[in-house]
Amino acid sequence: MSEDMDDADGRLARIERLLQSGERGLQPAWRRATRGETRWAVTTVMLAAVALQLVLPHRLVLLRPVWILPVLELALLAALVASNPRRVEPSTVWWRWLGLLLIGVISLANGWSAGQLVWDLVHGIGGQDAVPLLRAGAVIWFTNVIVFALWYWESDRGGPMARVRGQQRYADFLFVQMQSPDMAPPDWEPEFLDYLYLSFTNATAFSPTDVMPLSRWAKMLMMLQSSVSLVTVGLVVARAVNVLR
Question: Which parts of the chain span the membrane according to its record (predicted)?
């Protein structure tokens, strides 16, 4: 009797493995449960965003002394990395809220800097030298690219932890590999660098390129990024040209 039970259990295990392999073959990786992406890319880019804030002129910084916000951001980032150093994988909801708080702080700081720069340029303040002006504009522009890349990454299909579980069927962004799965490896799914590329192209072209927004919030977020980028680049370049003349 025990041998029959062992054979039955073995057959059941083999059937389950076959069903799981069949499911993996039918569904693309971005629609099923997978391992979380490695953390190095998003951590490196966040560190770059913190470092860029230290390059800004003091008049464009949200809080004084200028090191307060970077220290806060580094503390939040250190907590996130310590929770799961190697991969971005499902954890408690508190870690997701901590990540959103970190992105929100970086967004607030850069939004303040961008608004202050526009205010100064409109009122003729701090734009007498082209080099510092272009440097400040470039720092804000690049930080803006990072900020929106983080928001896209953290929001698409519920965020990276929800994407690992394969919880949401419908995507907010349509990547080329989703339309032509034969042009990508079978285990392909969007990771942070894909969203960083999306943010960069949207900030330079002021419109979608090869990644299309599907949900309404994705369209509004891309429209907001294009608007901020257009205003920043337009005012800074125009003022710099006038100074050089």
Answer: 62-82, 94-113, 133-153, 221-241
With residue 156 as reference, give the H or E element that holds it.
Answer: none
10 domain-assigned:
no
User: Where would I find the H helices in the chain?
Assistant: 2-26, 40-53, 68-83, 93-122, 130-155, 160-165, 176-179, 192-205, 216-244
Residue 90: inside a domain = yes
Per-residue confidence (pLDDT) for residue 41, from 0 to 100 = 94
The DSSP-derived string for 86-106 is: SB-----HHHHHHHHHHHHHH
* Full domain range(s) for residue 83: 35-244
Considering its fold, how many domains does the chain have in total?
1
Q: Which of 76-85, 122-131, 181-190 has the lowest mean pLDDT?
A: 122-131
Task: In whole angstroms, give the CA distance from residue 195 to residue 116.
Answer: 27
Classify residue 27: in a domain, yes or no: no
Let me know if residue 22 belongs to a domain: no
Say how far apart CA 125 and CA 140 lie, in whole Å: 17
Q: What whole-number distance in Å separates Cα of residue 107 and Cα of residue 101?
A: 10
Distance of alpha carbon 165 from alpha carbon 240, whole angstroms: 49
The rounded distance, in Å, linking the Cα atoms of 144 and 41 is 17
The pLDDT, as a whole number, for residue 62 is: 86
* pTM (predicted TM-score): 0.85
What rounded mean pLDDT belongs to the chain?
Answer: 84
pLDDT of residue 23: 46
| Residue 86 near residue 39, CB atoms below 8 Å | yes
Phi, psi of 212 (to 5 degrees): -105, 130
Answer yes or no: is pLDDT of 1 > 70: no
